[in-house]
Specification:
- The chain has about 180 residues and is of the alpha+beta class.
- The chain has a domain at about 15-130: Gcn5-related N-acetyltransferase (GNAT) (Aminopeptidase, 3-Layer(aba) Sandwich).
- It is built from four helices and seven strands, in the order E-H-H-E-E-E-H-E-H-E-E.
- It has helices at about 25-35, 40-50, 110-125, 140-150, and strands spanning about 15-20, 55-60, 80-90, 95-105, 130-135, 150-165, 170-180.
- Strands 1-2-3-4-5-7-6 form a seven-stranded mixed β-sheet, sandwiched between helices.
- The radius of gyration is 16 Å and the shape is globular.
- The protein starts with 14 loop residues before the first strand and ends in a 5-residue tail after the last strand.
C-alpha cells in the first residue's frame, strides 16, 4: 500500500498519520460512539482492517506548554500520542471510496478533518485514482459544507441509505471529489 505522509506541514508539525491496527480498535470504536448517533461497531472496523482497507489515524504529540488543558481528556494511543481523528477508505479501480472520516469531538472544528481529507486526496492521487467518493447523511450540513469546501460536489442521493431512529431511514448525499481538485 502506498504510504501516507508521516508528518504534516506547519502549523501541524506535532501531528502525523499512523496506520490503524487491531490494538486500537476498541479505542476507535469508543470514539465513534461519542461522535455519532449511529456509530460504527468494533466489528465494522475489524472487518475493514481484515479487508485491507486504508485505515489511518491522525495523532498529536502532546505539549503541555502550549496545549489547552482540556486536550488532556483526549483519547490516548498506546504510544502516548493523542488521537485526533481517523479515516477508513477503500481503494477501487481508478477511484477511492471514503467509508468513515471522524474527528474526535474534543478536536472538532480545528482543521483536522480538512487535513485528513487533503492527505486522502494525496494518497488517492499517488494511486492514480481520478476520484474520491463518499456518502454523508442528508441531515449532516456541517460535514457537507466541509466536503464542498474541500473540493467535493453532490452528485446524487441514496434513498434510505442510513439507519435512523426506530425503523426510519435517512437519505445519503453522494459526493464526488476529483482528485486534482481536492485540497
Amino acid at each position: 500500500m502506498t504510504p501516507w505522509p508521516a508528518a504534516l506541514p506547519a502549523p501541524y508539525q506535532r501531528a502525523g498519520f499512523a496506520p490503524m491496527t487491531a490494538e486500537v480498535l476498541d479505542l476507535v470504536a469508543e470514539v465513534d460512539k461519542t461522535a455519532y448517533a449511529h456509530p460504527w461497531s468494533r466489528r465494522h472496523f475489524a472487518d475493514s482492517l481484515e479487508s485491507g482497507h486504508a485505515m489511518q489515524m491522525l495523532a498529536l504529540t502532546p505539549d503541555p506548554r502550549s496545549d489547552p488543558p482540556s486536550w488532556a481528556c483526549a483519547p490516548v494511543l498506546p504510544d502516548g500520542r493523542w488521537l485526533l481523528g481517523y479515516l477508513v477508505a477503500m481503494q477501487g479501480v481508478g477511484e477511492v471510496h471514503l467509508l468513515n472520516l471522524t474527528t474526535v469531538p474534543l478536536h472538532q472544528r480545528q482543521g483536522w478533518a480538512r487535513r485528513m481529507l487533503a492527505a486522502l486526496g494525496d494518497w488517492a492521487r499517488s494511486l492514480g485514482a481520478h476520484a474520491v467518493w463518499l456518502e454523508v447523511r442528508a441531515s449532516n450540513q456541517a460535514a457537507q459544507a466541509l466536503y464542498a469546501s474541500s473540493g467535493f460536489e453532490a452528485v446524487g442521493v441514496r434513498k434510505g441509505y442510513y439507519p435512523d431512529h426506530g425503523a426510519r431511514r435517512e437519505d445519503a448525499i453522494v459526493m464526488r471529489g476529483h482528485v486534482d481538485a481536492l485540497h
